[in-house]
Design brief:
Elements: H1 5-34, H2 38-74
């Protein structure tokens, strides 16, 4: 009974992955064919990624400032007296 289990599961996995790859390739191919205003989409993607980078940088700066003040207030300052 156990001998056929890996064969069935590996075959099922291969079929699912092959089907998924087929539809992924087909979807990307179809998306490439229908893109008429590629420059407009590129600008939108660049604008959105710039916003994400800016927000990330601001959050990182805020985290650094908060950490600095929390360490100072808790008395965990590592400077020499």
């Amino acid at each position: 009974m156990i001998d056929w289990t890996p064969i069935v599961f590996v075959t099922f996995k291969a079929l699912v992955l092959a089907t998924g790859m087929f539809f992924a390739i087909k979807w990307h191919y179809d998306q490439g064919k229908k893109d008429k205003d590629k420059a407009k989409q590129n600008r939108a993607v660049l604008r959105a990624s710039g916003k994400v980078v800016a927000i990330f940088a601001l959050l990182l700066l805020a985290l650094g400032i908060v950490t600095f003040f929390v360490v100072r207030m808790a008395g965990l300052d590592m400077t020499m007296p």
